[in-house]
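the two lines:
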Amino acid sequence: MAEVLFFIAGTGAIAGAIGVVRVSNPFYSVLALVSHLLSLAALFLLLRAQFVAAAQVIVYAGAVMVLYVFVVAYVGGSQMPMRPAGGPVMNVGAIVFATALFVELVIAFLGSSLQAIDTDGAQYDAAFGTPGQIGELLLTKFLLPFEVASFLLLIAAVGAVVLARRRGGIVDQAPATPLDRPRPLGTGTMAEAVGVLLPEGSGLKEDKPEREKGGW
Amino acid sequence: MVFSIGAGGVLTRRNPLVILLCLELMLNAANLALIAFSRMWGNSDGQIFAIVVMVVAACEVCIGLGVVVAMYRRRLPVDVDEMTELSG
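prediction for all of em together
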């Protein structure tokens, strides 16, 4: 049973990862990453890491991926195509680099740890990986990293707000609405009705809508 | 059995094009290896490490997406090859 689950989740994880890299639409790429993360959570469960699996599903596949989906929808999916032409040298170099990294990691794994592959792993008590044990470790042995991580999260949140806010000095060029286009004179605009317009013949400059001065 | 999982995690390290997403992939491969080692040695420390990695990944996503949104606001091209302003 565990083997069947392992192979299902493993193939799901690898297929999701390949999908992330190969799909050109970033929206589908995010969805592939969600399936990859869910498969990984199943693998974590098989490895007796219940708390990490739950955190993976909730934090990663939930919150972080929702953030991704929002940003992809905001930026616009079609504006981020997979760069087809990074140059052939770049593509070949990328493949060579990935293959080299893969071979190196396989060598490392073969050299270090394949003696455990036929065993059931180390003995573990029933509480292994439960939230209680993880929390106890976090608050005793790993208290300092825990606090540092929380500060890091705080700094990252503040930094993201600072990065993504609207800056006061930079004019935010919103896409032109019909109201922003200059209209020919004498076509019955609201500005004409309230007498803002300069006399005829002074150009289109006076046709700027009132919005730019901050009022309605 | 347990360690072929680590090899499967290594397989996910494909080269990034959708760069932030692939950063996530690589961090997750590392996470999987950490948890597999933790299970192998029967020691929960690896799971703590995995949680810390998840925290770091969340921070990185936060900042990365903030940069993307800021670039989009300033109408810069959302493409790493054309971002050369910082290259001196």
